[in-house]
Amino acid sequence: MSESFSSSIPLPEFALWDKMKHNKNRGLVSFDLEVTARCNNDCSHCYINLPAGDQEARKKELTLEQISNLADQAVELGALWCLITGGEPLLRPDFFELYMMLKKKGLLLSVFTNACLVTKKHAEFFKKYPPRDIEVTVYGVTKETYEKISRKPGSFEAFMRGLTLLMETGVRIRFKTMALKSNLHELPEISNFCRERTKDYFRFDPQLHLRFDRNPERNELIKAERLSPDEVAAVEKADEERFGALKKGCDKLINPEFEKHVCDHLFRCGAGNGSFSLSYEGFFRLCSSLWHPDTIYDLKRGTLKEAWEKFVPKVRAMRSQNKEFLNKCRKCAIINLCLWCPAHAYLETGGMDSVVDFFCQVAHARSAAIANTK
Amino acid sequence: MTEAIINTSAIYLPSEKIVAREIEGELIIVPLVSGVGDMEDELFTLNDTGKEIWKRLDGKKSLKTIIDELVAEFEAPKEEIEKDVLGLTEELLKRQMLTIAS
């Protein structure tokens, strides 16, 4: 019978991931597609947002045809999963065409949105052509908190209306929030709000990285929203699910063996292994935050194959000669608890192998919180 | 869902509701619309035998022709091949991944 040659395989058990992982040509699994940097909200902590009406940014956005061409190249290299993100993707007037174009290429789609722009038409569309999931960001669950962060009057009402429409589609909704100075007091309510509405996950991130465009005025706004090291440790500890997972994984996260490491490689993360990010202007990066000029590749002037097969290994082979970094971060036993990575270090300091004192303080506060409960 | 009635003289082709892709030797069927296949955490895939049948479901060959081709190409009894072809066709029709051409 047909069971012998067809099967429905749960995604986490899909043998393809293994094959791709062990493929010496480094298989491509997924990519993030930033279709715009513009957003209807103006969140102070955001690392990318430009005003919705920014005509200059709009002109720089990849056209539908350019995205289609790049998606074809990604599919050719084996990509199966595509995250449509922004900015706010629904701001694109051609969103429906763009989404269907990607779907028809056989890509499994995820969409990140703030839900504020969701109309009945979007809801009906998603119901008919469902993505694998939609991830909605929740800044607050009261008008006061939400709009303090979004800095857009009326956005809380729009968010609630859009979310209700999305919930009615039956599409899997996932939630996330950033823990900020402005919503810290409301975090337990945000967590309850999200967990009541999804069978899937709710995740929050208490650590903010700086802007991709390194805009100094906007970076100051982000820094003002950052939780202190003790606050980061405290919000994690207060969340049973998150802290449980953190403690469970601490044997892997905290590794005294790292202190003996002699290694001058910049990249020890998974950047460029299986996935990449494509900016709204057509820049290829190994991960969404990696914006150092030596690590970006302009896909308007080259091919994805060249970026994937030649450029990525070159970036991953980069090494550091900065003694402070090599002696401090490279040998740090708690580096896995730290927000430090070459990408975040660049956004913070302009150098990929710089030590970032604030990250260091947060990592030590997190480590102390784990140690105190052992 | 009503039981699909399979006629070996019928010609089938992939439904417009899906996209079939081969990645690293695996044939994966990705649904485009809701209600087709598994929309949640699963992927519908075909193994090598399934692929041999799938690639012949091209809107040109009848099931009978497909069965005859497979009998000529593979060392397996005709009854077994026929059972496999009909079984997979039924499964794919149920999942709306296949449609009848004539």
Automatic annotation (TrEMBL), chain A:
Transmembrane segments: none annotated. GO terms for biological process: heme biosynthetic process. This is Radical SAM core domain-containing protein. Residues 25-257 form the Radical SAM core domain. Keywords: 4Fe-4S, Iron, Iron-sulfur, Metal-binding, S-adenosyl-L-methionine. GO terms for molecular function: 4 iron, 4 sulfur cluster binding; catalytic activity; metal ion binding. It comes from candidate division WOR-1 bacterium RIFOXYC2_FULL_41_25. Its cofactor is [4Fe-4S] cluster. It comes from the Bacteria. It holds the Pfam family Radical_SAM. PANTHER family: PQQA PEPTIDE CYCLASE (PTHR11228:SF7), RADICAL SAM DOMAIN PROTEIN (PTHR11228).
Automatic annotation (TrEMBL), chain B:
It comes from the Bacteria. GO terms for biological process: pyrroloquinoline quinone biosynthetic process. This is Pyrroloquinoline quinone biosynthesis protein PqqD. GO terms for molecular function: quinone binding. The lineage of its organism: Bacteria, Bacillati, Saganbacteria. InterPro entries: PQQD (IPR008792), PqqD_bac (IPR022479), PqqD_sf (IPR041881). Keywords: PQQ biosynthesis. Monomer. Interacts with PqqE. The keyword DNA-binding does not apply. Pathway: Cofactor biosynthesis; pyrroloquinoline quinone biosynthesis.
